[in-house]
Structure formats: structure tokens, C-alpha cells
Amino acid sequence: MNLTTDHSQGVSIIRVNETRLLYPLLQEFAGTVSTLIGAGERRVLLDLSSVTYVDSATIGCLMDLSRQAAAAGGVLKLAGVQKRVESMLTMTGAEEVLDVHADEPSAIRSFDEK
Fold this sequence. Notes:
Helix 3 links the parallel strand 6 and strand 7 (99-101). By secondary structure, the protein is an alpha/beta fold. The longest helix has 16 residues, at 23-38. It is built from four helices and seven strands, in the order E-E-E-H-E-E-H-E-H-E-H. It has one domain: STAS domain (Transcription Regulator spoIIAA, 2-Layer Sandwich), CATH 3.30.750.24. 32% of the residues are buried.
């Protein structure tokens, strides 16, 4: 799985450099995010701008990671969600649970808004 991790303005950014985020990749993906949360990161941003397709398992995984971050006193946000992925989030109702932003800069700014 092609992931990169970066930090900017107190936010841990995980960039998913895959066009399809599907079930076979989720163990490594979820493990990376969970490790960051477990290490004390409380502001986590998933940059999905390269992802053009997700399956239902991925949506469930994103929701689980969001709950995990919240349980640890943190926040998980998504940025750069492509139209097809956004449609899947809307159809499943996940967009009501997940904090989705148009791009990485606006998502980073939103961590400081209360």
C-alpha cells in the first residue's frame, strides 16, 4: 500500500497514494492510522485526493477510525474526496458521521475552528 505520512501545523496527514482503496489494503491502512492515534496524535487528516474508488468495507473502516480517534480525544478528518467517493459516502450516510473537506489546506484550518 502506498501511504505517506507528514505533519503540518500540528496535524498528522496521511496521504493515500492509491486510486482504489479496497478491502485487501485496509489492514495496512487502518494499522497506520491506528498506530498514529495510539501514539497520541489527536489531529489526523486523511488526504484521499488520489482515491477514485472505495468499497463498503473502506467506508466502514473510515467510520471505525473516526470513532477510534474520537474515543482517544481526537478528531479524524478527510480531505480531497473525489466525486465518486463522495457519492458512496452520501449513499451510505457516512458523510453525516465523517468530517469531509474539499482540500488539505481547508481541512487543516478547520482543526483550529471551534
